[in-house]
């Protein structure tokens, strides 16, 4: 009998990510975990209450509505992009390669700034939990460096492993906040259940601009759904579902939890209570309405919440880095995935080294991990991500207008245009109230805000240089190369070609 050899499949490229690794729930876990709901609520929401009082819950709904509108335009362009470039690819298609290169660089730096800054917060939270439960003191930088190693190990194992871990951690941190909220409501709060947070007077209160600036920062990372397109199952369905679920969940969840804290302290007293104890407001509430044991549990879950956020950001950063390396913008050495786990392992190693160096530098300088490492890095990172969202909205409109496909994507174009206006307002609000995020004044804030502009200008200049001196690199910007026309051809163009 003659043996017929089965055809051998071609080996996967060394830069290939694992296909079909994530469903909608896995991607949603990634992006919601990146926002770190428990950390955002217990660590930052009290500041929103201190600034604006009872109107704070509505600010989270407002920010969620803005990002939902942005998401409609953002997702309308997803099928025209492909790849893992997200902001970088969108802005390249809509606004040109020079600005696209600037967007890619700004995205990598902004995500890194947010992630590395959170190591300071995570170290402080871990230090406090260990001292509270074990009465042992460990230096913050030791804890930060240990967390960096843990994040690297999990990220190296692949995006599907990270999604499972994030799903478990997210369930726990969500559960403890819901236990607190429902305990407050069942016991009637401080003065009975009130809905003054949703009245016109609360919504137009003088502090609402500052609250909105804080609320916008609470959604950072949701847009990274598109980064996982190459690893998603049925991405044309999975990515939109994950994006809308993430935005909707965060908006409603944040609003409900903050409103429950208003009930816990009462409409008249919550602003003063938050202003007097920003760091301990949620712990005070959960001890009063649930018990001391719940406060101990929350102190541990805040640590795991920050860890989940770091894992999610680590994955997103590495995929941006891989995309830029694929295009020759970053060193080709980074253009490889793990042979077994198919994770961007080299990009992950680079990100780990950068994080360790920055954390070590702050430690050697004797800088405070919260007031320096967290606030000084997170602020330009958050502003950078908002600017990228604004540019992406403009890019969506520009792309479809130029391709004469406005009628085919009418809803997406309208949403992108509205999103651009809303995001411009949100970015302006955040910059105007930047001292709420930095707790600094004067030249420090000017430098932090200005650094975003410097990165964009430097990136555009680098793109123009590549056009003249490295045309091969310039042609690859955006991650399209030879397949650009195949990916970006619109229905209108295809009809005209028949």
Task: Kindly summarize this structure in a few lines.
The protein is mostly helical. It is built from 22 helices and no strands.
Describe this structure in words.
It is a single chain. The protein has helices at residues 24-35, 37-43, 45-52, 56-76, 87-95, 97-134, 140-156, 159-186, 200-203, 208-217, 235-265, 270-276, 281-289, 292-326, 345-364, 369-402, 410-432, 435-438, 443-469, 471-476, 484-488, 491-497. The protein starts with 23 loop residues before the first helix and ends with a helix. The chain has 498 residues and is mainly α. The longest helix is centred in the first third of the chain and has 38 residues, at 97-134. α2 crosses α14 (292-326), α4 packs across α17 and α6 runs antiparallel to α16 (369-402).
In helices, the fraction of residues equals over 70%
Query: Separation of termini?
Result: 50 Å
* Number of discrete helical segments: 22
Radius of gyration: 23 Å
| SSE order, one letter for each helix or strand | HHHHHHHHHHHHHHHHHHHHHH
Arithmetic mean pLDDT: 84
* Weakly predicted, low-confidence segments: 1-12, 481-498
Task: Give the number of DSSP strands.
Answer: 0
Q: What spatial form do the alpha-carbon principal axes imply? A: globular
Mind describing the biggest β-sheet? none
